[in-house]
Amino acid sequence: MVQALLVSFGSVALAELGDKTQILALLLAIRFRRPWPIFWGILSSSILNHAVSAWLGGALSSLIDRHSLDVMTGFAFIAIGLWMLKPDDDPELTEERLRLGVFGSAFVLFTVAELGDKTQFATILLGARFHDFPMVTLGSTLGMMVANTPVLWLGARFAERLPVRPIHIASTLLFIALGGWTLAGAAGLA
User: Tens digits of per-residue pLDDT, 67-89?
Assistant: First the structure.
């Protein structure tokens, strides 16, 4: 239970640093200069996205035998780790999306930006790995918020100082280690 929470939190927080949604948080903060509605939009979107992703991972784990699932999950974690080395493109802020108000814009843009994102796939895999929907959802949502919340208040000055490349390399190593740990467990070594 605690392990699912901590691994989910750490994985998503680290994977989110320098990610397109963190850049999106920065762009929203610069555009609207109202961090609280953006915060609540990001939180609402994250809870929805990570709950669905953790549930999906758990559901998939009940359809596939444990050994096969561990092998697939291990290789998928390694693939996400390698994917972390590819920088994200900047998200677009269109006037049509911004007509939703500050909260609505943050909610919609974050929900769309997370579809097919590394952190969404990571949450699906964490849900499959740990079979603990509440802790994976809570951990991954907290990880998302810890990574994005400072950007809302510290803005461009903070984002420019982030050592993005070392963060991506650390994320790569974390996900490859999770993949190795999962594969070792599938082989009976862990």
Answer: 887 888 788 878 877 876 776 55
Domain that holds residue 170: 2-186
CA–centroid distance for 41 within its chain: 16
Distance from C-alpha of 109 to C-alpha of 132, rounded to nearest angstrom? 28
Number of domains comprising the chain: 1
Which residue in this structure is represented by tokens 């510290």?
Answer: 154
Q: Tell me how crowded residue 64 is: count the other CB atoms within 10 A of its CB.
A: 14
C-alpha–C-alpha distance, residues 63 and 149, integer Å: 36
Six token digits for residue 48: 């929805």
What are 3-24's pLDDT values in tens digits?
Answer: 999 999 999 998 888 777 887 8
Given its phi and psi angles, is residue 26 left (phi above 0), alpha (psi -120 to 50 degrees) or beta? alpha
Residue 1 CB neighbour total at 10 angstroms:
9
